[in-house]
Write a structure and sequence with these properties.
The complex is a heterodimer of chains A (1135) and B (156).
Chain A lengths: L1 H73 L3 H15 L5 E4 L13 E4 L5 H11 L5 H19 L1 H8 L1 H28 L3 H81 L8 H10 L7 E8 L1 E2 H11 L4 E2 L19 E2 L2 E4 L9 E2 L4 H13 L3 E2 L3 E2 L6 E10 L9 H7 E10 H11 L6 E7 L7 E4 L10 E5 L8 E7 L7 H79 L4 H31 L8 E4 H19 L2 E6 L6 E4 L1 H18 L5 E8 H5 L7 H8 L2 E2 L8 E2 L2 H4 L13 E10 L21 H7 L5 H11 L4 E6 L3 E12 L10 H7 L3 E5 L3 H13 L4 E5 L2 H6 L10 E5 L5 H14 L8 E6 L4 H10 L4 E4 L4 H12 L14 H5 L3 E5 L3 H13 L3 E5 L2 H7 L8 E5 L7 H19 L9 E5 L4 H9 L4 E4 L4 H12 L2
Parallel strand pairs in A: 5-8, 18-20, 26-27, 26-28, 28-29, 29-30, 31-32, 31-33, 33-34, 34-35
Antiparallel strand pairs in A: 1-2, 3-7, 3-12, 4-6, 9-11, 10-11, 11-12, 13-14, 13-16, 15-16, 17-19, 19-25, 20-23, 21-22, 23-25, 24-25
Chain B lengths: L1 H20 L5 H9 L7 H25 L6 H18 L2 H15 L3 H34 L11
Helix pairs in contact in B: 1-6, 3-4, 3-6, 4-5, 5-6
The chains are: A alpha/beta (1135), B mainly alpha (156).
Chain lengths: 1135, 156
């Protein structure tokens, strides 16, 4: 049953677990969603943050670009622009600042900005207005430009975030992708889940696994995207840094170039002034070609960038002849095809104006007499230079003589010191000559770059971008990393010409290891972790699966176990039935006339059959216990009487082997206890049977019963046996004098000794002590295992199956007790077991020998025994029959010498055979007789013998020394008989109850028979009529109730149990209710209680109990049998 | 005359013993016969006829219950079988009783086919018994008419 319970329990647990798991699953889904949300939110937040930072950078970049525009167009000094930009920028950021900038005094004074602003928490418009005011003096274009910039910045900064999100669609796509992926995964698995709902239990663990895998997948996706983002972010940063570096270097180069150029230009300017002063201002001129050439050559260090300077005079056509004569050469025309040979130059064609070179540096001396106006570039340059009054540059072209690209710087030389605001006409009028300087751009740039650091890392190109459609490259090569380029504008002082410097790195950007490594590691770690977790999840899944399988197998194994036990029980039962037949027949056969041989065969067969039956019974018990079908009865029984029976049963066997058998029950044990006497008997029989089997020709078997309470408080006990037990571990002071093992060793292990049981229960401690061969130490552990004997030789030597102890153990467990043993090979074994029994206070003793006990009260007895314990046992038996004053002497001699006073008024003397000694006895007997002289009745002498041959017995009896010989083991009935015979007059009371005739018992009684079947009614009627009863028959429960409604004159009722409409139980219940009512109403001395007996075909215990429960008084089986009918009816009619 | 009676008595005896041996009757029938005395000379015949009436009635009821293939009222059939079992054991109709026992088992597991089979068997058995007993009573009558007494038959 317990197994069945366990079997059903897992199911319960399972359903429970299912609901729990169900809840957990829904929780997990929620968790999954929350996690997804969290991941997305954190991603978005992070992106936002990075955008914000990025946007700041971009703003700066924008500012930078606008700065560049300003620079390019207006040559506003860097610091000024910076200040202005920071003003705009900061005003947008709503931070306060103060700035004070002084314009650099220089040639762009008109653009000077002096600002002193406090824009604490001011609006953009206001700031704009300020700037506009400040800028009022400057040109409109600049203002417009600035305003444009401001507006652009406003827009950008105002909608920074939004703009950025829109601009960086990539991020949006990323977030979206992650969300969509998560959603799809989730949906997919949820759909799966729905389809799996039918087989919930099976898929439970699978679904858990899926969920875990989903989580893992999501985590891995998150990890990968994080790594990618990290890489992207770091890479961006590196690229930005690179770009910044490039910008800085480019700007640096541009500025240096520009500054150098300006310086050189100033020098040319100064040279022009020199010419105007010393050539034109002096008459005669202080400068001739030679002087000029020398001077310029010597001051060449000041213009490191120029390859040569030349001075051309403004000559009108009218002056040409005069001029030519003056100088002695004709004005020659520049020949662009071949510039190397001056003398081959053709004379210049007729023109309005000529600009023949009169002075030239040595390097360009070939230019002397060449008309500069004849070259297209030069002519244009000259015209522009004189109109503007500033240095003017040509577009780059192949320089004469050298193959390098170069530009010509031209300054006009005026005859008067013109004011700044002189008109173009005035300037042209005042022009008298032109000073030109040629710049060799490649060598110029080369030289400059040589001076700067890290020249190897970047390559520089310089372009003339005056004509946007055809950009002219002035310097540089197409090498380097084309992907990245920074453009810085160059200002060489000529507003008409635009130059740009393009910088790029010579090498491609290196592989950004810094950006790759950490995210790479993160990626690897992610995958590793993913792998590990994946493995773990797989492992968990396998383990779960295994556990499920193991559970299944366990359940199956348990079921198989139960099935096995049930099968055994059934089969054993089935075998028993035919075996009974076989045995019965054999018994009958043995009763017939058989010859000796046949008799022997039959007896052997009978014996074997009996063995088989007992074995089957044992197997049946074992199987019943294992399948949980064995239930203990709970009936009151007399323990001492039971033990008497057992000892009488086993005494024969014990006597055969010469073993002394003794029983002792402590006086604290109640006379009647409630329990299962059959099973109790089975245990003790088994233990004692074993003891007899394993004890050889000597020693004793001693059964003692105590309460565990006595053992628990051992110091209060007055029990001699217990005292002796608790005294020492091993003692020779035993029943037979042979050493035995002390039982206390096994008691110590009993758990129940610590527990306290309820007051209406008692716990018995039974000890069976023997002096047998003992159990080998190595076998002691498996002694309670079914079919396991101490060793295989045991069954050969002693027989048996080895199932008895196992059954005993189970039975003891059913009695809520424990069994244990102490054993010493060669000394003996002591088994102890405990069991919980009910106390029945209502019955003090089964009144079996009541009267006899009465007779013996007040008798005085002396026990003479050499063994203390045996004397105690004898005392116990004497006490049981009511003899209360008992003295003990160890031997006849001591009794006669030291205990003389005790000998007075003795009624009984019990002498053990071991203490029997003829000589001493004679002395003792004399003493007795002398002490008893005054009394009429001399004490009776009883000899206690364990095993005596009939010859010995008759000898002792005939000697006349003793009155009677008592055979041990002592039993109450035997003792009483013996005492009655010796003490009394020898009268024997024969109580014989002759069964009265059934007819006389039933004569004249009114009996109601209730049965729905007419045949049964008729038969019952006939049977009862036979015994002269007055029978009334009714055919239904209802009718019966009507008939039995008090008052009525029925003496008894036989009731069928199974009837339509109202069955026997119900009818009885109603009748009892009616009687109860009646009894209450009348309150008379006579109580109504009609005996109702059930008539039933199948006499089962359950039905029987049910009958009693619903108020019936008994039952008779159908069809009636005389004896049974008598015995059931007699209880009611006998009185 | 005596010869005829003796022959009839012997015939009666053999017939009754054969009934016991073939398992039609058991001890209870002899108990019944013991109950028959001068006061109730037709007791056995009365009881037996009551039994057969009961049988035919119950069998009819049960066959009606088992007629329909579904929704068989096994409870009703069960009570019928129980009654039949009780009465058959009362008269000592051993074979009928034995069939009733297996019938009841079929009924407990609600096996309709088994029930129908058992019902047919019960029908057959009780009819068989009826004819046998009829013969027995006829023999009895003949013995009585011939002026003899019914012999006591001890089957043990």
């Amino acid at each position: 049953m317990s197994i069945a319970c366990e079997l059903s329990n897992p199911n319960l647990k399972k359903t429970k677990a299912e609901t729990i798991v169900g809840n957990w699953t829904s929780k997990k889904i929620l968790l999954f969603r929350v996690l997804c949300g969290l991941v997305c939110i954190s991603l978005v937040l992070w992106l936002c943050l990075s955008f914000y930072v990025g946007s700041l950078c971009i703003c700066n970049k924008d500012a930078e670009s606008s700065k560049g525009v300003l620079f390019r167009n207006h040559n506003v000094t860097r610091s000024e622009i910076d200040a202005m930009l920071s003003l705009f920028f900061d005003s947008n950021q709503v931070t306060s600042f103060e700035c004070r900038k002084e314009s650099n005094p220089g040639m762009w004074e008109s653009y000077g900005i002096t600002c002193s602003l406090s824009t604490r928490l001011e609006k953009d418009e206001e700031a704009k207005r300020h700037v506009a005011e400040l800028m009022s003096s400057s040109e409109a274009s600049i203002l417009d430009n600035l305003e444009e910039n401001v507006e652009k910045e406003e827009d950008e900064s105002g909608h920074q975030d939004v703009l950025f999100y829109l601009m960086n669609k990539w991020h949006w796509w990323f977030v979206l992708c992650v969300l969509v992926a998560a959603h799809f995964i989730f949906e997919f698995h949820r759909r799966k889940e729905v389809s799996f709902l039918q087989d919930k239990q099976q898929t439970q663990c699978k679904r858990d696994g899926k969920l875990r895998k989903n989580m893992l997948l999501l985590c891995i996706i998150a990890g990968v995207s994080l790594s990618v983002f990290w890489f992207w972010h770091t890479n961006e940063k590196i690229l930005r840094q690179r770009r910044e570096t490039l910008t800085n270097m480019c700007e640096e180069r541009a500025r240096v170039l520009q500054d150098q150029f300006n310086v050189s230009m100033n020098h040319v300017h100064a040279l022009s002034i020199l010419v105007s002063t010393f050539h034109h201002g002096k008459t005669p001129s202080a400068i001739d070609q030679k002087t000029f050439s020398e001077y310029t050559e010597r001051t060449n260090f000041e213009r490191p960038l120029t390859s040569g300077v030349a001075y051309a005079l403004k000559v009108t056509h009218s002056e040409r002849e005069k001029f030519e004569k003056e100088h002695g050469w004709t004005i020659k025309k520049m020949n662009p095809e071949d510039q190397t040979l001056v003398h081959e130059f053709d004379p210049a064609p007729v023109q309005d104006e000529y600009a023949p070179v009169i002075f030239a540096q040595e390097t360009v001396s070939h230019l002397v007499s060449v008309d500069m106006m004849s070259g297209n570039e030069d002519r244009e340059n000259i015209l522009r230079a004189r109109a503007l009054g500033k240095g003017v540059l040509t577009s780059p072209f192949q320089l004469l003589k050298s193959n390098h690209l170069g530009v010509i710087l031209t300054f006009a030389v005026y005859n008067t010191n013109l004011p700044h605001d002189a008109t173009e006409e005035e300037r042209i009028q005042a022009t008298i000559g032109y000073l030109g300087a040629s710049y060799d751009m490649p060598s110029l740039v080369e030289k400059l770059l040589q001076q700067l650091a890290s020249k190897q890392t970047i390559s520089v190109n310089v372009y003339d971008t005056t004509n946007a459609s055809s950009v002219i490259k002035m310097y540089g090569s197409e090498v380097g990393d084309m992907s990245e380029e920074h453009i810085s504008s160059l200002d060489f002082g000529d507003p008409f010409r635009k130059h740009e410097m393009h910088c790029r790195f010579t090498q491609k950007p290196p592989i950004p290891w810094l950006a790759i490594m950490p995210p790479g590691f993160a990626l690897v770690i992610t995958f590793l972790l993913g792998y590990i977790f994946n493995e773990a999840i797989n492992r968990i899944a396998t383990v779960e699966e295994d556990i499920r399988k193991v559970r299944e197998l366990k359940a199956r194994a348990e079921a198989a176990d139960v099935a096995k036990s049930q099968f055994l029980a059934t089969v054993s039962h089935e075998i028993r039935t035919p075996m009974v037949g076989v045995l019965g027949m054999l018994k009958l056969l043995m009763d017939t006339d058989l010859d000796a041989k046949q008799m022997d065969f039959a007896e052997t067969a009978h014996g074997s059959g009996k063995d088989l039956i007992s074995l089957i019974n044992e197997v049946l018990d074992q199987a019943k216990i294992e399948s949980g079908r064995l239930e203990l009865e709970s009936v009151p029984f007399d323990l001492r009487f039971l033990l008497d029976n057992i000892s009488s049963l086993l005494s024969g066997k014990a006597a055969e082997k010469g073993i002394e058998l003794a029983v002792y029950v402590s006086s604290h044990v109640p006379a009647v206890i409630i329990g299962d006497p059959g099973r109790f008997r089975q245990i003790i029989t088994n233990l004692v049977g074993n003891s007899i089997k394993f004890t050889q020709e000597k020693g004793h078997i001693f059964i003692s019963v105590h309460l565990t309470n006595e053992v628990r408080e051992p110091f209060d006990t007055e029990d001699e046996i217990l005292k002796q037990r608790l005294g020492s571990d091993e003692t020779c002071n035993t029943l037979s004098g042979y050493p035995a093992v002390n039982a206390t060793g096994s008691w110590r292990n009993f758990r129940t000794f610590q527990d306290h049981i309820s007051s209406d229960k008692i716990e018995l401690l039974v000890t069976v002590e023997d002096t047998g061969v003992g159990i080998p130490f190595e076998a002691q552990s498996r002694i309670f295992t079914p079919f396991m004997q101490a060793d295989s030789s045991t069954s050969r030597t002693y027989g048996g199956t080895g199932i008895g102890l196992s059954i005993s153990k189970r039975l003891v467990e059913l009695m809520q007790g424990e069994i244990g043993f102490v054993s010493k090979p060669g000394v003996g074994t002591t088994f102890s077991f405990t069991g919980v029994f009910g106390k029945d206070s209502s019955v003090t003793a089964l009144e079996l020998f009541d009267q006899s006990i009465h007779e013996f009260q007040g008798l005085k007895a002396l026990v003479i025994d050499s063994r203390n314990i045996r004397a105690e046992v004898t005392r116990y038996h004497l006490q049981r029959v009511g003899i209360s004053s008992i003295d003990i002497a160890s031997s006849l001699g001591t009794a006669s010498t030291s205990c003389a006073s005790k000998l007075v008024n003795l009624d009984l003397v019990l002498v053990d055979k071991d203490a029997w000694n003829k000589e001493e006895y004679v002395a003792f007997s004399d003493l007795l007789n002398s002490g008893q002289e005054t009394y009429t009745r001399p004490p009776k002498i009883l000899l206690l013998a364990t095993f005596t041959t009939p010859l010995e017995l008759s000898e002792i009896k005939s000697s006349g020394l003793v009155d009677e010989v008592l055979m041990k083991p002592l039993r109450m009935s035997v003792l009483i008989c013996c005492l009655q015979e010796t003490m009394g007059d020898g009268k024997k009371r024969q109580i014989k109850r002759k069964p009265k005739n059934l007819g006389s018992l039933l004569r004249g009684k009114h009996i109601l028979v209730v049965d729905d079947t007419v045949v049964n009614r008729r038969v019952a009627d006939a049977v009862l009529r036979k015994y002269k009863a007055l029978v009334t028959c009714v055919d239904s429960g209802k009718a019966a109730v009507a008939m039995l409604k008090p008052p009525h004159d029925f003496d008894a009722c036989f009731m069928d149990l199974q009837m339509p409409e109202m069955d026997g139980f119900e009818a009885t219940r109603r009748v009892r209710d009616l009687e109860e009512e009646m009894n209450k109403k009348t309150d008379q001395s006579r109580k109504w209680h009609t005996p109702i007996l059930a008539m039933t075909a199948d006499v089962i215990q359950a039905t029987n109990e049910k009958c009693i429960k619903c108020g019936m008084d008994g039952f008779v089986s159908k069809p009636f049998e005389e004896e049974e009918l008598y015995s059931s009816v007699a209880r009611f009619f006998d009185k | 005359m005596n010869n005829v009676v003796a022959q009839l008595q012997r015939q009666f005896h053999d017939y009754l013993v054969s009934l016991y041996q073939q398992g039609f009757l058991d001890n209870q029938f002899s108990e019944l016969r013991k109950l028959q005395d001068d006061g109730t000379p037709d007791f056995v015949a009365e009881v037996v006829s009551l039994f057969f009436e009961d049988c035919s009635k119950l069998i009819n009821t049960m066959s009606r219950s088992l007629e329909r293939p579904e929704n068989v009222d096994f409870k009703q059939v069960d009570s019928g079988v129980h009654q039949l079992k009780g009465s058959s054991s009362s008269v000592g109709a051993r074979r009928v009783k034995n069939v009733c026992i297996s019938f009841k088992e079929c009924c407990d597991v609600q096996n309709r086919e088994g029930c129908i089979r058992c019902l047919q068997q019960v029908d057959y058995e009780y009819k068989m018994l009826k004819t046998k007993l009829q013969d027995l009573f006829n023999l009895e009558q003949q013995i009585l008419q011939a002026g003899g007494t019914i012999p006591q038959v001890d089957i043990n």
